Records
---
Amino acid sequence: MVQLSGDESPEYTDNLRNRLEQLKIQFNRRVEIWKAIRVTGINSLEAMKIYNVDKYLLDSNAKKSYGGSGIAFDWKLVGHYLKHGKKNHTRGNIEIGKK
């Protein structure tokens, strides 16, 4: 699995997908691509329509950090996210039972 947590473009992920497909032929093993999306609102989730990846990681939008900030994002946005049909994993500050 390859995890992308930066500002990679859709073109970058397409090129990576092509290279990984070549490795699949050579080693008979598929490598998944996971892309972190920094959740700032509904519009940030629209990025999931343009990336050719296997799974997304939803993360908070900390100004000086890519993940690991301890800041939770707005979980109400997850319903919108699930409409896109991608399997997902979440990371960041998960606060179960807190509003």
---
Amino acid sequence: METLVAVAVLAVIGVTFLSALRTSTESVERYEQRVIAVNLTQSQLEQVKAMPYDATGNYPVVISLPFGYTMSISTEQIDTGKQKVTASVSKDEDFIFKLSTIKTNL
């Protein structure tokens, strides 16, 4: 009987440990994806800042993206000669991160 209780306790401890390990691994993976997405959006927006001002707001994605990642660029006209440019990153169609900057026609 004591052996059975000991095995049951060890099983509960083992399942709890494996569950915590899985949760930890998923958290690390999400963190890594977010870091990659932040770096991608920052790089893209720096490239957009270096491009000539486009009154239509049509700025292409010019950086290379890792496999599974996609980026979209949207532009909102704030004022004459001033645009809000937003880069959004997804991985496997799941949104991860977006970042905006202001581009002016100077």
---
Amino acid sequence: MLPERPATYRGGYRVLEVDLHAHTRFSDGFLSPFDLVLQARRRGLDALAITEHNILFPAQLGRWFSRLTSGPTILVGEEVTTRRFHVTPARHWKEVQRGRRRRESASFPNP
């Protein structure tokens, strides 16, 4: 286990170490959701977004495990993948169903 790194501040704000796009072996990554959480903790990340292709379950597993082990904050995401594009939406809570038009699938709540 690496020693805890000191907090960094710029302009009075704490700077977070975050990886906003990571995959597990459920799509095109190599690690399980649990191993990805452990790797993020070893790297000293404050937060990690697990963004599988068209599935939320691995990210939900990662969030559960991270909370259980006092790991980094896990942002549950999904990389929506079609033949024409890939997009990683913010504040995305449910899987996009295949075959639906983009406008029907992309309904994101305002903050």
---
Amino acid sequence: MEAANWHSPPRLNAAHAKVTRGDEVPHFNDPEHWRQRAKEARALAEQMLEPAAKEAMMVVAASYEKVARRAEERIREQRKQ
């Protein structure tokens, strides 16, 4: 079995390469999308027994909440224009 090369960047297909702006991804500016991801991450954290893994998943949830707040800020900024 070949060892994984963790130093190589992942290869992206053409669909990934085309996504360069937030408005090209429907959920990018949707705070509820990110809040749902946060909720899912918290639910996973509750199921985890390993404290370090649980803490890491809670950090993921907090990061999703931060992305949701930023999406709300983008929406407010767009409405002002």
